């Protein structure tokens, strides 16, 4: 692999194929695969990721907001797209761009029906979200009769699926709670299906749900983090490949004497003769200030270099006193060997947050596309 010459997020499409195939191998053949590509496909690039997955015949996409779905349509993505968290102000646009809304409460249901009728739609596909314990979005189980009564009074929409979301599918201490969520969902789905004369699909599993609850795959699963190479456990991380490598380069090396300081607010003071390297990546690129002052490390020529002083907007300084390196050498923030999930731990956070934090300013470079 060529060494980085500037700050770059390398995106390994071969690893994406591997992860997709691995997750699919966990499913029964008839279970559909929805790829969650919200937040720029977890900080990578939603358009290139969606194009690649569309070639692999993924069944569905999901995004969080309408704008994200529009971007995929603008890029020529034709696979169905579920919008997980739409707002009524975007319903006309949703219909214009053939996006499929999650309907999560009475207000959204009534507004969507109103707009679908205005737009002279018939059987427009929607997905009804039920809350089974996450207490974030969704109708409650006792809303089934209300939702069905609304459906009986319009031909403008049709329910493509009923779904829910697990609160702790990755957590072995919460198996009982998760099983109760699944049972609750089954009960809701059964009640719903007996009251209408067609069969919407059912889905509840995210990546950890797919891996830990094989009996709850139902008709479709919704995978995000697994596609990007993380399985929320050491065991599963071994079966997946991180698709994103964040790399940079040493811009400049400084030699400083004892008691000289580094960076804004003079937050770091040298303990003796030291060498520091300045790297062109800062909080505007996704390295939050939490990583400053020795909390975070980067890798230079295989060795850990701690971040010294405060993280700046466009750069960090790292201590390279004991590292043999020169200006222009490659710097690894995270990659397949130094995982983003590990880098996340320095800041007490999780892979999801680190990946999605890589800002749009960072150049994306696609590798292994065939
Ligand atoms: C983000 C999201 C997912 C994907 O979860 P992963 O843990 O990344 O697989 C699935 N479903 C919903 C509703 C989501 O918001």
By DSSP (H or I, 4+ residues per run), the number of helices equals 12
Head-to-tail CA distance between termini? 15 Å
Contiguous uncertain segments of 5+ residues: none
**At the fourth CATH level, what is the homologous superfamily of the largest domain?**
Alanine racemase
Ligands (ions, cofactors included): pyridoxal-5'-phosphate
- The side-by-side strand order for the widest beta sheet comes to 11-14-17-16-15-18-10-1-19
Structural Rg: 24 Å
Task: Supply database-style keywords.
nine-stranded mixed sheet, binds pyridoxal-5'-phosphate, Alanine racemase, elongated, Lyase, Ornithine Decarboxylase, Chain A, domain 1, isomerase, alanine racemase activity, TIM Barrel, alpha/beta, pyridoxal phosphate binding, EC 5.1.1.1, 2 domains, 370 residues
Written overview of the protein:
One of its GO terms (cellular component) is cytosol. There is one protein chain. The protein is α/β, with parallel strands linked by helices and 370 residues long. It has two domains: 31-228, Alpha-Beta Barrel (TIM Barrel); 244-367, Lyase, Ornithine Decarboxylase, Chain A, domain 1, CATH 2.40.37. Helix content is 31%, strand content 24%. It has helices at residues 13-25, 38-43, 46-55, 66-74, 91-96, 106-118, 144-152, 175-195, 207-212, 234-239, 340-346, 351-357; strands at residues 8-12, 32-36, 60-63, 81-83, 99-103, 124-129, 157-163, 201-203, 220-223, 244-249, 252-256, 261-262, 268-269, 274-279, 297-300, 303-308, 316-319, 330-334, 363-367. The strands form three sheets. The protein has a nine-stranded mixed β-sheet. Strands 8-7-6-5-4-3-2-9 form an eight-stranded parallel β-sheet. The protein has a two-stranded antiparallel ribbon with strand order 12-13. Helix 4 (66-74) links the parallel strand 3 and strand 4 (81-83). The chain is elongated and about 80 Å long. The mean pLDDT is 97.
């Amino acid at each position: 692999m060529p060494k980085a010459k500037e700050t770059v997020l390398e995106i390994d499409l071969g690893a994406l194929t591997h992860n997709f195939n691995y997750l699919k191998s966990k499913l029964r053949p008839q279970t559909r695969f929805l790829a969650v590509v919200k937040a720029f496909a977890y900080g990578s690039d939603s358009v290139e990721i969606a194009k690649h997955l569309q070639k692999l015949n993924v069944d569905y996409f999901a995004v969080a907001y309408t704008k994200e779905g529009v971007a995929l349509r603008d890029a020529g993505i034709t696979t169905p797209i579920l919008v997980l968290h739409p707002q009524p102000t975007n319903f006309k646009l949703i219909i214009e761009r053939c996006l499929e809304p999650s309907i999560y409460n009475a207000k959204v249901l009534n507004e969507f029906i109103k707009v679908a009728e205005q737009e002279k739609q018939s059987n427009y596909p929607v997905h009804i979200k039920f809350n089974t314990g996450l207490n974030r979005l969704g109708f409650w189980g006792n809303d089934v009769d209300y939702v069905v009564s609304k459906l009986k009074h319009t031909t403008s929409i049709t329910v493509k699926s009923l779904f829910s979301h697990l609160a702790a599918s990755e957590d072995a201490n919460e198996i009982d709670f998760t099983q109760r969520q699944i049972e609750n969902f089954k009960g809701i789905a059964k009640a719903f299906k007996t009251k209408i004369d067609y069969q919407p699909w059912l889905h509840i599993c995210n990546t950890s749900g797919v891996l830990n609850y094989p009996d709850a795959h139902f008709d479709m699963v919704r995978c995000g983090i697994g596609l990007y190479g993380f399985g929320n456990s050491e065991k599963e991380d071994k079966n997946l490949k991180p698709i994103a490598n964040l790399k940079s380069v040493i811009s400049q090396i400084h030699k400083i004497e004892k008691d000289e300081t580094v960076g804004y607010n003079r937050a770091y003071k040298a303990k003796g003769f030291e060498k520091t390297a300045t790297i062109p990546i800062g909080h505007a690129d996704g390295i939050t200030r939490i990583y400053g002052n020795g909390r975070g490390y980067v890798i230079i020529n295989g060795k850990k270099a701690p971040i010294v002083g405060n993280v700046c907007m466009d750069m960090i300084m790292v201590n390279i006193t004991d590292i043999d390196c020169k200006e222009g050498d490659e710097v690894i923030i995270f990659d397949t060997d130094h995982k983003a999930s590990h880098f996340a731990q320095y800041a007490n956070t999780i892979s999801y947050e680190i990946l999605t934090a890589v800002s749009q300013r960072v150049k994306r470079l696609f590798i292994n596309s065939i």
